[in-house]
């Protein structure tokens, strides 16, 4: 698999445990997006996020000040494209892969782009991948041969996002609920079937708990 940006949860791998029924929130920016200067009608408060993908406080080219909040800062270990001080997910077509690296990640000696693109890539092992999701803004493009970003054994489908800046979100469908109330999510390696589109985002859906080490979440 080939990726252009990798953010990693810091630490030893044992510092931030997640118990059954809990979840972690990784925010692009762990702040209150309902604030008057930032928000829209579909914005949500992410000040209680567990992690945020920023490199510390900085000022963007347009004067926006990215504040360093209580959320734990992620480590950006790979950056092959246009480097920004935060994680910028495309507002159009994109894919996200969750993986646990079995070998060191090296931010150099990239695979050069051969299709006229502006960015190179870093390879990761398919066997390291735990989960993935991909989406297209044009449904017909996704249905064409070669219209998916990920190999079919990683993700055989995609979600359709009709427009940008609408506040819509995707969430994984619930497969079943255990007797203790914890939720098990559907995972058939096909985003078309496994995810549903929501008109508004929500933090910690289906009653997911907050990890005990997050003492700043309300």
In DSSP terms (H or I, runs of 4 or more residues), the helix count works out at: 2
- One letter per element, helices H and strands E, the order comes to EEEEEEEEEEEHEEEEHE
Biggest sheet character: 3 strands, parallel
Spatial strand arrangement across the major sheet: 3-4-7
The oligomeric state of the chains shown is single chain
Question: Whole-number average pLDDT?
Answer: 89
**Poorly predicted runs:** none
Morphology: globular
Kindly name the structural category: mainly beta
Portion of residues within helices: under 10%
Count of extended strands: 16
Strand content: 15-25%
The termini sit apart by: 38 Å
Rg to the nearest angstrom? 18 Å
Summarize the structure.
The chain is 4% helix and 25% strand.
What does the secondary structure layout of this molecule look like, with pairings?
Layout: E1 2-3, E2 5-8, E3 26-27, E4 51-52, E5 58-59, E6 65-66, E7 72-73, E8 75-79, E9 94-99, E10 122-123, E11 129-136, H1 139-143, E12 159-160, E13 169-172, E14 174-177, E15 183-185, H2 191-194, E16 195-198
Parallel strand pairs: 3-4, 4-7, 11-12
Antiparallel strand pairs: 1-10, 2-8, 5-6, 9-11, 13-16, 14-15
Task: Characterise the protein shown here.
The protein has 218 residues and is mainly β. It contains two helices and 16 strands. The strands form seven sheets. The protein has a three-stranded parallel β-sheet, with no helix packed on it. Strands 9-11-12 form a three-stranded mixed β-sheet. A hairpin with a 5-residue loop joins β14 and β15.
């Amino acid at each position: 698999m080939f990726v252009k940006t990798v953010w990693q949860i810091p630490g030893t791998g044992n510092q931030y445990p997640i118990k059954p029924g809990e979840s972690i929130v990784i925010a692009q920016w762990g702040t209150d997006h309902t604030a008057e200067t930032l928000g829209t009608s579909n914005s949500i408060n992410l000040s209680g996020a567990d992690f945020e993908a920023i490199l510390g406080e900085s000022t963007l080219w347009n004067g926006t000040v990215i504040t360093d909040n209580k959320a734990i800062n992620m480590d950006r270990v790979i950056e092959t494209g246009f480097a920004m001080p935060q994680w910028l997910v495309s507002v159009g077509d994109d894919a996200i892969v969750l993986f646990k690296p079995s070998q060191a990640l090296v931010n150099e000696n990239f695979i050069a782009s051969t299709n006229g693109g502006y960015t190179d890539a870093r390879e990761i092992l398919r066997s390291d991948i735990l989960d993935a999701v991909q989406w297209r803004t044009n449904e017909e493009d996704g249905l064409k041969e070669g219209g998916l970003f990920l190999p079919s054994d990683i993700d055989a489908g995609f979600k359709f996002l009709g427009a940008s800046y609408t506040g819509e979100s995707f969430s994984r469908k619930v497969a079943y609920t255990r007797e203790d109330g914890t939720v098990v999510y559907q995972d058939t390696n096909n985003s078309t079937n496994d995810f549903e589109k929501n008109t508004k985002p929500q933090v910690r859906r289906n009653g997911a708990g907050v990890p005990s080490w997050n003492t700043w979440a309300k």
